[in-house]
Amino acid sequence: MKTLGIVGGLGPESTIDYYRLIIARYREHIGGRGYPRLVIVSLDVDHGIDLLNAGQLEQLAEYMLGGIRQLVAAGADFGLIAANSPHIVFDSVRAASPVPLISIVEATCDEVQRHGLTKVALLGTRFTMSGRFYQDVFEKRGMALVAPSEEEQAVIHEKYIHELLVGNFQPATREFIEQTIVDLKEREAVQGIVLAGTELPLILRADSIAGLPLFDTTQIHVKAAVAQLLEEERGPRAGTER
């Protein structure tokens, strides 16, 4: 059985969600018998945010690589970074990684494309909403990404860093994000919403808002990771229901 490595802690609340979801999805696919092999390295989200705020992307990439090397030392055969914002350095991290890595951005792009959408909104931290790492992947597939206004981004980022990352989910914050989605639909005619922050699904427990489908990047990333686990095990588990 292959081992999945998870770089987590970015933040801790969503890493817990990853762990639970991976186990549940894996067991669902194998008929409730057995558990996946997982190793988790939990990094310091505050340090990661400090590096992002300072624009120290090379140092951030090395910090991520340090976590991946720990996973490999613990027996990981492939891995993922359980957060969106650190994917700002994903290309350089993947190029230097000793094991294959599953991109949350690429997995999400695949999922949106499967739904046939061409214009979606992007919610997350300021690093994600104002960055190019989501835009570049989507634009290559002919899909447009729309970010909230600068004022909306500032509020969402502030709430994300100081509330969601520490597990503080306020009704007023939920209402603001939901209203932002409504405004994006009316203002930009978007067809869906990418929750490109792994804490966002923890406060927006819904499949859609204002008639727009929500693309939960945690669930999408988990789906891709479990598919890889099952693919690796297809030989030894031949005949098991998928």
Using the alpha-carbon principal axes, give the shape.
globular
CATH architecture of the largest domain: 3-Layer(aba) Sandwich
Return the CATH class of the largest domain. Alpha Beta
- Give helix % range: 40-55%
Gyration radius from CA atoms, angstroms: 18 Å
CATH topology of the largest domain: Rossmann fold
State the helix count. Answer: 11
Strand content: 5-15%
Work out the count of structural domains: 2
The N- to C-terminal Cα distance equals 16 Å
Largest β sheet strand count, sense and barrel closure: 5 strands, mixed
What structural class results from the helix and strand content?
Answer: alpha/beta
**What is the string of SSEs from the N terminus onward?**
EHEHHEHEHEHHEHHEHEEH
How many β-strand runs? 9
Major sheet: order of its strands? 6-5-7-9-8
Low-pLDDT runs of 5+ residues are: 236-242
Question: What is shown here, in short?
Answer:
By secondary structure, this protein is α/β, with parallel strands linked by helices. The chain has helices at 12-29, 45-53, 57-73, 90-96, 104-114, 126-129, 133-140, 150-162, 171-188, 200-203, 217-233, and strands at residues 3-8, 37-42, 78-81, 101-102, 119-123, 144-146, 193-195, 208-209, 212-216.
Please explain how this structure is put together.
This protein has 11 helices and 9 strands. It has 242 residues and is α/β, with parallel strands linked by helices. It has 2 domains: 3-103 and 220-233, Rossmann fold (3-Layer(aba) Sandwich); 105-216, Rossmann fold (3-Layer(aba) Sandwich), CATH 3.40.50. Strands 6-5-7-9-8 form a 5-stranded mixed beta sheet, sandwiched between helices. Strands 2-1-3-4 form a 4-stranded parallel beta sheet. Helix 1 crosses helix 11 and helix 5 (104-114) packs across helix 11. The radius of gyration is 18 Å and the shape is globular. Residues 236-242 have low confidence and may be disordered.
